[in-house]
Amino acid sequence: MDMERSHHFRDPGSLLWRRVTAHWKNQRDNLATVVDWVVMLYIIVPGLLLGGGLYRELWTSPLPGWVQFLPLQAVVGILLFMFSGRVLLFFEEADTLFLRQQREWMKGLMIGGMAYSHAVSTIKGLIISVLALPILVREHDITGTALMTLLAVTVVCAWCANLWTAMIRSRYKGWRKHLMTYVVRWLSFGLLTLLVTFWLQSYVVIWAAVLLLLMLLFFLSRKRLAMQGTFLADAREDAKTRVQLTEKLLVQAVGKPPSIRSKTWFMRKSGRLFKGTAEKRLADAGVKAILRQPESLLLYVQITLVGIPAVWLPPLIIKIIVYLALVLMMSYWLNTRWALFAKAEFMHVLPFTNQQHRAAGIVAVRALLAVPAFLYSLVAGLTLFQGVMGWLAVLVLTVLALMVAPSLMSWPVYKEEKRQPQE
Length: 423
Known about the structure:
Elements: H1 2-8, H2 12-34, H3 37-60, H4 72-83, H5 103-139, H6 144-171, H7 174-199, H8 203-226, H9 231-242, H10 244-254, H11 278-291, H12 294-312, H13 316-342, H14 354-384, H15 387-408, H16 411-422
Helix pairs in contact: 2-5, 2-10, 3-13, 4-5, 4-6, 4-7, 5-6, 6-7, 6-8, 11-13, 11-14, 12-13, 12-14, 13-14, 13-15, 14-15
């Protein structure tokens, strides 16, 4: 297989480009198998609006009180962590058939992999640095040359630590590998903290340190290229690095097997929540079923709690947009939970029509939406208006949210049922 590749690729650079593009395509495909981009829009768009508003507030309004308890060393430590990352050499175990006999190709692939890894970690760190600029500039008064000097020494220090830890992972195993990796990371943090604390304004010292770190990086790179007998370990480390995202996604998507309980711990002895028609009795069962699922209950509580500061912190216009987005997003998510309950196999034996399912779903979603809608309306109303007008706004917003959102967000879930009678 690799002998065939040697006829297709003229140099190590073309092979590296092929593997980089294949790596990103694999990451994209993994995301597509887990992430529903339609649902993600309900999270990404409000998140960008909220984040943009908060970032603007950091530049235009007084900084939050907690910022003064965040020393410069802590900010630099966070930046160093974000500039850190693994080194991906793009080795594969099958390369033992070809690349191990072609030292120039091996070196070319290793050099390209190290350069790629440094570039990726730098881009990631610079994005976080942009987010941290208000704290650096306004709280610690680091601007211009001092800011560029700080970023330069942080980047180079992270590069050295990244490459050094990659060499340790390839050379050692077990507790020695973990211990030496932690030692290198803490040494890099200690060195950077020392430079920032005593010599940040002494540009000659900082740039001399940058030069020495670049020399260390060059030495580590040459030593890495000269390492022998680590090919299989390098290939295994590369495989672990490439599947990191997949592992995280699978853990989130599959999760742990649910524990089997003979009795539910939530609403164990609850009576009927609704009385009256068959639709209300069905809604009663649906509400209990949703809240008795640990995953659904946990996510329900998390979204509710996260939404409170999301509505409270932004300025006026963004506050209203975030409030509407959260109410609609929560309503849509609750409708999807209801749809899973209504389409379960045991529900097929019950004589309920699609219209009854939808009517019961609106009642159930309305009941589940009551708590988050009231809390969001409470925060929005009392921050937008004062006194009696604020409490009146709370009442009006809550009623509107409960009356409009469940019905509005139910149509995407039930559009398939609408088509079935027509077919």
